Amino acid sequence: MSRIDALLVLMVLIWGVNYSVLKRAFLDIPPQPFNALRISIAAGLFLWAIRRVRRRGATGPVSSVFYTPHALTSRDRWDLVWLGLVGHCAYQFCFVSGVDQTSVSNAALIIGATPVSVAVLSAVVARERIGVLHWLGAGVSVLGIYVVVGRGASFGGATFAGDCLVMLSVLCWSAYTIGAGRLVRRHSALYVTGMTMAIGGGPYVLLALPGLVALDWARPAWWIWVALVLSALFALGVAYLIWYAAVQRIGATRTAIYSNVVPIVAMAVAALWLGEPVTRAKLLGAAAILGGVLLTRARQ
Description:
It is a single chain. This protein has one domain (3-297). The protein is 78% helix and 0% strand. The protein is built from twelve helices and no strands. It has helices at 3-25, 31-57, 74-101, 104-111, 114-125, 132-150, 160-186, 189-214, 222-250, 252-256, 262-273, 280-297. The protein is globular and about 55 Å long.
């Protein structure tokens, strides 16, 4: 196992635990205000780190994960703007709203289809050639999602709206991952992640402003605030940086394959902490989604 593989395993553990952290915290703080505070903390730390690393990079060698000397082009600036709006504002809004309205297991299983979404979007947008097994894997994963979400679902169902929002967040994240691939080849993962988070975080905070104003700041227990800060540091800070460092080093498709392990961690934590049942349908859906992901990585 290489160093980047070990870091990606750490990222999987962080994101798997984070589902249950969010689900529990939303009982005390509404989803959008909670996430607006998370993004503000994480974006502020990224901007501080970018400034510090730039000073150090001007005087000595620094890893390309943290610093590169390339100047921004006009296209780079436009890419940072749309990536920030799609990858942080739209993605985060759909993700936290979806997690709030569905179960941890459902959300994690749908997110588990991210590698397939990245592979298919790469074929359509980046014109990456994808073989028959890749398309077969996409179909199997879609079947897995249907087993988890679609059986007996309706627009009035208890979790259907949340499931749809999480699916939309998968598309936003896939577009963000592929779109940032060009940027991280020229600029550091730290810079791309931090700048897009700051750009997308501004509009997101404005959307959440009514909830922030109405928030009863004295209601949440002290450990909820600790969980908020830790989630900002690890789920948005450390894990995001690992993700784009991996995209920079090994590419988007290979990096995305690691997200197929997140559902297993998330379901295990939710079962132990929140008492969510792990039904036969969810296990079958998990097997189908992960099997589809493996097919997309198989060699013909």
